[in-house]
Write a structure and sequence with these properties.
Elements: H1 2-10, H2 12-15, H3 28-34, E1 44-47, H4 48-63, H5 73-81, H6 111-118, E2 123-125, E3 128-131, H7 138-151, E4 160-162, H8 164-167, H9 170-175, H10 181-192, E5 194-199, H11 213-225, E6 228-233, H12 237-241, H13 249-252, H14 265-277, H15 281-303
Parallel strand pairs: 3-4, 3-5, 5-6
Antiparallel strand pairs: 1-2, 1-4
């Protein structure tokens, strides 16, 4: 503009100071994350380090004789939440009973949210989605998470697991106010991008894992979405695998999703509807899930 030329000619432009934009010291990935749409934010997970090194200790201190090596997560659900109503037979682990949740403004949040308030470094974007069942003992489940990280050389302080027991608001689930788990679960799997199946056995005839509807469905959805899938055998299951030949696995890993069970009839109805509407129906789902586990466990067996 004419004024600019006039200032430059007179030397006044050099004397004037113009406000400079603040220096952006963020890394490219941090800038990209800041501009990510809210709907694409990853679900929060709890660090494996916290679960392995602190959770068991806190449970033993809180529940004493009521908690031991044979306590399952189903047992723990009753110990912590009782009737499922905040303040009624509920034990306020990490302050999760008295914190207010954003959905209905009432007391009661997930254990994950409460842990984040007390120890923010132990909660962050989940990078593992854990497929498992509440019928596992707390001891063997936590050992499996620890061993998975050790075998795969994962830093447990930087490995954040999305585990439904911790990351869902159980007050909403137990009271029936929860969101549609079938829909939100698929979104979580897609956002996290990596599923780890914790198996109590590779033999579908005796495995709790293959008897539960949610776990089989989770693997089917993970296959459909195309995310990374891995597994970890709990307890002595790996030792049992040493006695098995690869060609025997196909006969041992049989899946029947329509016979698998879930605790909530609504989940059974919703999942069955998705399965029956999928390409190939239930038979296709069974074949896909079984084929995946035969391949993964077979490769593992060959490497033993």
């Amino acid at each position: 503009c004419p004024d600019c030329y006039r200032l430059a000619a007179s030397g006044e432009a050099a004397k004037r100071s113009y406000p400079q934009p603040p220096q952006d010291k963020r890394t490219p990935s941090e800038r990209q994350e800041a501009h990510r749409p809210k709907g694409l934010e990853k679900p929060q997970g709890v660090s494996v380090h916290f679960l392995v090194n602190q959770f068991d200790r806190i449970l033993r201190k809180t529940f004493r004789a009521q908690y031991n090596d044979s306590t399952t997560f189903a047992d723990l659900r009753v110990l912590i939440w009782g009737s499922g109503k905040p303040g009624v037979e509920s034990v306020d682990l990490f302050g999760h009973v008295t914190m207010r949740n954003d959905r209905n403004g009432e007391n009661g949040v997930s254990l994950c949210e409460a842990i984040a308030e007390q120890s923010s470094e132990d909660v962050s974007d989940a990078n593992l989605f854990i497929s498992w069942t509440w019928r596992y003992t707390v001891k063997k489940f936590l050992e499996a998470l620890r061993d998975y990280c050790l075998v795969n050389k994962l830093d447990m302080t930087k490995t954040f697991a999305w585990v439904c027991f911790f990351c869902n608001n159980q007050f909403l689930w137990l009271s029936g106010e929860r969101q549609d788990g079938v829909e939100t679960f698929g979104e979580n799997v897609a956002k996290i991008g990596r599923v780890v199946c914790i198996l109590d056995s590779f033999d579908a005839k005796t495995a709790l894992y293959f008897s539960r509807l949610w776990t089989v469905y989770e693997v089917f959805i993970a296959c459909t979405i195309g995310v990374e899938i891995d597994f970890k055998l709990m307890g002595g299951a790996e030792e049992d695998l040493e006695e098995v030949k690869v060609k025997e696995l196909k006969a041992m890993i049989q899946v029947d999703i329509m016979k698998a069970d879930a605790s909530d009839p609504r989940d059974i109805e919703n999942i069955h509807a998705v399965i029956l509407a999928s390409e190939g129906g239930a038979a296709g789902v069974n074949a896909k899930v079984a084929e995946l586990f035969v391949k993964m466990i077979g490769q593992f067996l060959l490497g033993m």
